Amino acid sequence: MEWVSVRMRASLRGRHVSGAERIVRQEDIPSTLCELIKRPKTYDQLHLTVERLKDVEIFRANLKISSYTFEDVNEARDFAVQVLSKSGVSEDLARKAVNLIRSGASPEGWNMRGAVLMDINTGERLEEDPYRGVRTVRVDWLKREEVSRYLTSQGYTLRTVDALAIATKNIFCGVLAELCWSDDPNYVTGYVASSKMGYVRISPLKREGDPLGGRVYFVKKEELRKVVECLERKALLLDL
Asked: Average pLDDT in the 27-45 region?
């Protein structure tokens, strides 16, 4: 069966504002393009990529989902640090990751297009391009509609569908732990993910109206090339 990756990236005044991806069959390309171009609320450039995939692996997603809500941002971030610590990240590096996303991880103090790569042992930043970072692409659910119905029936949002897919592929590729919260000013829930702790949703990891967000992937420096190749090139369909 032939699969196609359909990806969207939108920017405003040179800054990333939205991105999304689907892996679909040939006949679903038109409807998928129509869906993705409606995602960004505002932009001055929107890029669409349609790519035929040669090899697609099917992998059963197995991350346990849990959710925690706190009274304020500081409590939520402290809890994120605790979850990262239980995932094998030192407290100092966990707080460094929080502060990177909080203050804008790119050199200009804004959102990166992709994720920060951080050495889990030293805290060294490993991404080649400090504006782009690394992007987790070529991943989707084998039965997206079924997964969407299931997760929403459990009280989760449609955002969780995509975020869980990305987190699952990250761990599949060798990311040891991840910290993420959205750059959407109106969405304040983020998560920590690791093979040990699962997918841990945490709210609020930022204040409403804050446009800063991003991801930090904790990896081993000696495995960097293999991890990046998997994140950016490996095509993965997830079964629940």
From this structure: 93
Q: Average of pLDDT values for 206-218?
A: 96
Q: Contact at 8 Å (CB) between 216 and 179?
A: yes
Mean pLDDT of 77-88: 98
Contact 167, 199 (CB under 8 A): yes
E strands, the chain, are 3-12, 15-24, 45-53, 56-60, 65-69, 116-119, 139-141, 177-181, 190-194, 198-203, 214-219, 235-239
* Cα(33)–Cα(197) distance, integer angstroms: 35
Nearest to 101 by CA among 214, 192, 236, 237: 214
- Per the listing, tokens 């993910």 go with 193
Measured CA to CA, the distance from residue 46 to residue 5 in angstroms comes to: 16
